[in-house]
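Narrative of accomplishments. A recurring question from our advisory board has been how the design workflow behaves on a single, concrete structure rather than in aggregate. To address it, we present the structure tokens for one chain from the evaluation set, followed by the sequence designed for it. No filtering or post-editing was applied between the two.
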């Protein structure tokens, strides 16, 4: 998966996670309200209206997060399928645990 394949909202979400920010902190960085920023992340505005942040590459953790969201799966559902806890999947997605179980599940 390439950065160019992400929606503008997905790009913003990855950018925000990389900075370790809440949606409120990201909204403040942009000078918009938190509700407006949430709409940006949900792609409720056209791409031309969404602030663009440059992302050069995606990590496997970021790819897994995007693929899980696109598949409409919860962390609990992925956890069940790989035989781990939802907490474990959450820790992997937040970069607190290194594991290739989730990446293998998504074929990475």
């Amino acid at each position: 998966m390439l950065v160019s394949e992400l929606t503008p909202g997905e790009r913003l979400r990855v950018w925000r996670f990389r900075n370790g920010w809440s949606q409120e902190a990201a909204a403040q960085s942009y000078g918009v309200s938190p509700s407006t920023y949430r709409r940006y992340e949900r792609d409720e505005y056209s791409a031309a209206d969404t602030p663009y942040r440059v992302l050069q590459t995606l990590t496997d953790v970021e790819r897994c997060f995007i693929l899980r969201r696109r598949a409409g799966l919860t962390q609990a559902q992925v956890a069940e399928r790989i035989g781990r806890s939802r907490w474990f999947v959450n820790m992997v997605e937040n970069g607190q645990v290194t594991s290739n179980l989730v990446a293998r599940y998504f074929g990475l």
